[in-house]
Amino acid sequence: xxxxxxxxxxxxxxxxxxxxxxxxxxxxxxxxxxxxxxxxxxxxxxxxxxxxxxxxxxxxxxxxxxxxxxxxxxxxxxxxxxxxxxxxxxxxxxxxxxxxxxxxxxxxxxxxxxxxxxxxxxxxxxxxxxxxxxxxxxxxxxxxxxxxxxxxxxxxxxxxxxxxxxxxxxxxxxxxxxxxxxxxxxxxxxxxxxxxxxxxxxxxxxxxxxxxxxxxxxxxxxxxxxxxxxxxxxxxxxxxxxxxxxxxxxxxxxxxxxxxxxxxxxxxxxxxxxxxxxxxxxxxxxxxxxxxxxxxxxxxxxxxxxxxxxxxxxxxxxxxxxxxxxxxxxxxxxxxxxxxxxxxxxxxxxxxxxxxxxxxxxxxxxxxxxxxxxxxxxxxxxxxxxxxxxxxxxxxxxxxxxxxxxxxxxxxxxxxxxxxxxxxxxxxxxxxxxxxxxxxxxxxxxxxxxxxxxxxxxxxxxxxxxxxxxxxxxxxxxxxxxxxxxxxxxxxxxxxxxxxxxxxxxxxxxxxxxxxxxxxxxxxxxxxxxxxxxxxxxxxxxxxxxxxxxxxxxxxxxxxxxxxxxxxxxxxxxxxxxxxxxxxxxxxxxxxxxxxxxxxxxxxxxxxx
Length: 609
Ligand code: F6R
Prior knowledge:
By secondary structure, the chain is an alpha/beta fold. About 35% of the residues lie in helices and about 25% in strands. The strands form four sheets. The chain has an eight-stranded antiparallel β-sheet with strand order 3-2-4-1-10-9-11-15, with helices on one face. A seven-stranded antiparallel β-sheet has the order 5-6-7-8-12-13-14. A five-stranded parallel β-sheet has the order 17-16-18-19-20, sandwiched between helices.
């Protein structure tokens, strides 16, 4: 979490950094700050709250410098406050640091600094130890001091440092937290993510783990741990800043819900050749590799994990291979059985989620082949995988994931189809028909968006429920988890998803007159069973809002409200049934006056454990 932006050049550092931080608020937004080198001193401004608060604080203060670093924070050590906001300085105030990540041995370092150097700490953050260490190690050369400091630190970090006596220089380093360098004309930039820089540059260096960066207006140099200079290929960004703007929608989340038809179209068509066959492009996995896999693990967190739940059904069905699914934070610590016949599929929108990355490394260490499904090109998960299946969702800014989820689902279908076809577990005819059905999904999804008015009205009626249950069977159960997560994360309603057949084993005890139940009944072969489950909750007085396939009208007599999704094959309904759930969550949250794009306590990219 946390976003870093730095600039050295001849322009106004403050303006460029504030601009960049606004694009990184999805990484954290509980406080923000900026430090610049001006007239041989560090000028520091920081404030609790979003970037707007920082801008108010700066006001007309003349920060004319052309060297600076900035930060938007998602608190780990120390509550959100002015004091805990970054940048942090050493006591002399001549060194300033911004940091994303966690310094694991910070308590030890803090004790040593207090004991041996009589340092008086101002904040409760782990980051402040870095500022003091760099200050103590500083003998006139910032690079030297940062190298020495990094040798004393353990943990995950991306840091950027400036020194009052070295205007025109930023030194940065990364380990398990993202950093990119932007290459401008007589100016260089550093940031946690590309959108922060897009207004200014299109040429990027991705920084790898344990690499150091030294930026001046004239040069951007990368060094390894032993201070050998590294040559890095320039990456040309092909999308533009507009793709990350709201374009008239009230919130990024709504815009991203509406972008799903396009994102799904892109994700599908970029993977199909002119014969409608899935093309692998850079993916090196052969037919022999696929035939050799005896087991697949799908591992991810949150919404990406929910995409994996659907992936398990689909891949097992199409490729006839056992698929286990796990959340990354559990998988990485449970010593799973993995060998060189295991395929490990990591799903991650950001490609920077620390738990997913750690699970991936664990699987690789044990010999698994790693295929990742990632949205952010060049992200850590992408770079550390054997093969990458990119989603073409475009930048997703709202913290609550929508288009990344549906494009992850699309990848699950394509992976399942490709594996099944290569293994001969599905025929070419089945494969072709399935792909033809997938090709219709963008248009069918557009039809689902047409329910906007109805869902908005329903949300006005149901927004004040304090408890909501999501139920479904089979693939509907997988989608229930996602619907429930969407609602709770942005509206703060206590929502809970459960496989409908499990209700009677305990949870039904919670049904009371008026309890809201969202029931998904889109699987034809389970439809009758779902009707029985709906009866069970209705009998206890629940208010039932159902999602069903067009034509299955018998559900109306058992539900208070029904939304129909267009008829399609059972396997594909998750791509459609999630849409009314996303919209319901959105409009309920709006009705409750919540901060939809930036829900409390959350951040878009979770680079801490
Ligand atoms: C919820 C949401 C999160 C993420 C999770 C994993 O709307 O977005 O649950 O899905 O934090 O993030 P990625 O996909 O970036 O690994």
